[in-house]
Amino acid sequence: MSETTVAGVLAELAALEDPKARAVNERHGDDHGVNLGALRALAKRLKTQQELACRLWATGDSAARLLALLICRPKAFGRDELDAMLREARTPKVHDWLVNYVVKKNPHAEELRLAWSADPDPVVASAGWALTTERVAKKPEGLDLAGLLDVIEAELKDAPDRLQWAMNHCLAQIGIENAALRARAIDIGERLEVLKDYPTPPGCTSPFAPTWITEMVRRQQS
C-alpha cells in the first residue's frame, strides 16, 4: 500500500470525527472521536489488508489503530510484534480490541498469556488475565483454577483499576463455568466486595462477581 492510501484513510477518519463521540470516548479514556459503527463500516469496505493495517498502526492515531485491528490478519503477527503492540496500546479500546480481535486468534496467544500475566505493568498484566478468562471459558484443561482463585483472593482488592477489572472477570468466569468452585468464587467476591457498588444500567448484569455468577448460572439453567 502506498503512503497516499494511508493518507487517504486518515483523511476519511478525520472526516468521521464527531465532537460528541469524542466527548463520550474521552470519558472512558479513549482519545478519538470516530463513531465505532462508522469505523466498522469503513473496515468492511477496505476488507483485510495486512500491510495497510501495519502502516495505520504505525501512525499512533487511536482511530487508525482501531481500524488497523479490524482489517489485519490476526495470525500474521509474530509474538514480539504483538508484545510491542500491547505495550504501545495505552488507551482502553485499542488495548481491548488488540487482545480480543487479534491476540486471541494468534498462535502465540498462550505464550503471551503466560508472559503477560506475570508482567509488572498492571495494564500488560490485565491482558494476560483477559486471555486466562478466555481459557477458563473455552479451554480450561490444564489450568489450575483453584490456584487462580488463590491469586485473585490475595491480589484483587488492591489491584489497579484495569487489572482489577480483568481479574474480577476471571473470578466470575471461574464461578460461572465450574460448579465445584462456584461457592468459593462467590465467597471471595462477597468478602472482597470489589465492584459491589458499580453503577449498572437497567437490564445489564452487575460486574459484582457474586451477582454476575448467580445471574449467568440462572440463565444457563433456565
Tell me about this structure:
It is a single chain. With 222 residues, the protein is mostly helical. 35% of the residues are buried.
Rg estimate, integer Å? 19 Å
**What is the tally of beta strands?**
0
How do the SSEs run, as a string of H and E?
Answer: HHHHHHHHHHHHH
Helix share bin: 55-70%
Mean pLDDT: 95
Query: Termini, distance in Å?
Result: 52 Å
In brief:
With 222 residues, the protein is mainly α. The chain has 13 helices and no strands.
SSE blueprint:
Layout (H helix, E strand, L loop, with lengths): L2 H13 L3 H9 L8 H11 L3 H9 L3 H10 L7 H10 L3 H11 L6 H9 L4 H17 L6 H11 L5 H17 L1 H14 L16 H13 L1
How would you describe this structure in keywords?
single chain, 222 residues, mainly alpha
